[in-house]
Specification:
Structural class: alpha+beta
Number of helices: 8
Distance between the termini: 18 Å
Helix content: 25-40%
CATH class of the largest domain: Alpha Beta
Strand content: 25-35%
Bound molecules: 3-[O-phosphonopyridoxyl]--amino-benzoic acid
Mean pLDDT: 96
Radius of gyration: 19 Å
Order of helices and strands: EEHEEHHEEHEHEEEEHEHEEEHE
CATH superfamily of the largest domain: D-amino Acid Aminotransferase, subunit A, domain 2
CATH topology of the largest domain: D-amino Acid Aminotransferase, Chain A, domain 2
CATH architecture of the largest domain: Alpha-Beta Barrel
Number of strands: 16
Shape: globular
Largest sheet: 9 strands, mixed
Length: 288
Amino acid sequence: MKIYLNGDYVDEDNAKVSVFDHGLLYGDGVFEGIRLYEGCVYKLEEHLERLEYSAKAILLDLPIKREELREAVCETCRRNDLSNGYVRLVVTRGPGHLGLTPDGCGPPNVIIIADEIQLYPEEFYENGLKIISVPTRRINSSALPPAVKSLNYLNNILAKIEAKRVGFQEALMLNDKGEIAECTGDNVFILAKGRLFTPPLDSGSLRGITRAAVMDIAAGLGIPCQEQPLTRYDLWTSDECFLTGTAAEVIPCVEVDHRQVGDGRPGKVTRELIALFRQKANTDGIRL
Ligand code: PXG
């Protein structure tokens, strides 16, 4: 496998960064996860923009321009002969001293890994996921803007472990007020009385690119969609529930905290959104 590392395409075994990189020492950096569908890098511009915003928010100067980064993502896919897969784009603060200050750190490391993707088994798209809310909370939006896709995922990882230990595939994460934030790597939607609802960013949700794509598809279908704070009760009593994310795409939830959602089967609107998302996935991006 060829990895892009600071302008070079190197073998996996030679793709090395310093142990003094603050990305490793402190999780100081930003990243994106991007899909490649039949030779088309899905919503690449949106991902590059979000990366730039994440970097700006944490005062990290990207050492590479949009055009170069776009080409590097595509070239990494080409060099690995991929036409379907997953791209991980990472920018770290770079090597520095032991100590939190990023003064003297750098240059940032820019890493692009393009590989095949491990998807949820198709069975979950047909039968739905069972999810459970967990004690570990989403980081408060006043502590770290949830729109920043940083290298700090420890509380999401703890949430995932908590859900898995009690036999669930995914964890529902709440914010400090007990409102729904999101799942560990996916946004949450419900359908109630014919309207879609998803938590606003302020509730602790990432500005998901799949979330936005689903909102567009829903608008095209004439289904109203509102960003609104949601409680666990709203999910328990919803007619349909689904998650959205780069890796999972659109995936139904049929049980939340042991309460069956709707009739316990993936809902009609959810199935329609899954089908339309899949239809459009290889048309909405940049061709290799
Ligand atoms: N919330 C969080 C916290 C995320 O990290 C999403 C929502 C969905 O956003 P997009 O833009 O992908 O629709 C994400 C992003 C994984 C994995 O391995 C997934 C993400 C990030 C890191 C790892 O499943 N998803």
